[in-house]
Amino acid sequence: MTEKDAYVLLEQIRSIMLNKPAVGELEGEAPVYKELQETISCLSRCMKEMKVRENKLIEQAVRSRGFSSLLLSIINSLKDWVVVTEEKTGKVLYTNNLVRKRLYNQENGHFICGETCGLMERLRSSEEITDIHKYEFKCSREKFFQVESHPLKWENTKAVIHLITDVTYQKETEAYLEVMAYKDELTGLNNRRCCISTIDEYIKDNSSFALCMVDLDGLKTINDQYGHLNGDKYLKCVSQELKESAGKGDFVCRFGGDEFVVLYRGLTEGEAEKRLAGINRNLSGILSGYPMSVSYGIICIKKEMNLLPETALKIADEKMYRLKRLRKQKNKES
């Protein structure tokens, strides 16, 4: 029975009471009193049902408040930032603890950074969302965020909940790994992968350049007799000399093991050889406790040669090993 039905019953009782006959006019079993008893009994049942219903509603409300508190507690414990905005106006309805600490104070509407925040402006923009919306956002402070927005009802209001993840560290790591994919860890020079692509670029640019394959003499002996730490010092020393010999627009890389590749733009074979001979003079003057020198092979690549990078490297490598053999032969003869 509804509340409206209860009022109807009460009205019926009032009507019966107003038309009640005088005492003694009718016996207790008169129809009017039977009707009154039935009505009172029905009303009593109705009131009991209403009380039960009221108790259930109170219980549901308590559970709902408890669930809401639990939900907010979970949201506040998330490592992601959470912002709820009204769909039409963009008004901020809720922010979790992380947002309040690092980005936006909902109570006073102030940005923690002290200036208008591009991310919050994006979140507050009046954009109707009917499905999950994902995007990346880069702010003026070189911070990167992944945003996932969902439409929802928030306290009977059409709203959007935004889950925001700071991915700046991830982006920086990816950028670092991308750079390191083309760098030699020990010397800091470019590596073999970068070398091939750079030679290809030089050739496609129709640049005239000297390609030099450089090999450290006696690195294995130094590793065996003086230890690998001294071998690493030898590699670093040569790499530094090669970098200093290179001008703007030139290229130096560690090709692998004890081999380096240098590209000198615009130099002839003779000019490149003078630079490498100068490196040998510098190395001989370093007091390291063991001899340091390099062997090299040079090929001057001109516009009309149309060589593949691998072919050019092979030619320079063969020249370098011829020089090594000549040196060994001279050392034996002496």
UniProtKB/TrEMBL annotation:
Molecular-function annotations in GO: diguanylate cyclase activity
PROSITE patterns the UniProt entry points to: GGDEF
Protein name in UniProt: GGDEF domain-containing protein
UniProt domain GGDEF: residue ranges: 207-334
CDD domains: GGDEF
Gene source species: Lacrimispora amygdalina
UniProt cross-references to PANTHER family, sorted A to Z: DIGUANYLATE CYCLASE DGCM-RELATED, REGULATORY COMPONENTS OF SENSORY TRANSDUCTION SYSTEM
Pfam families: GGDEF
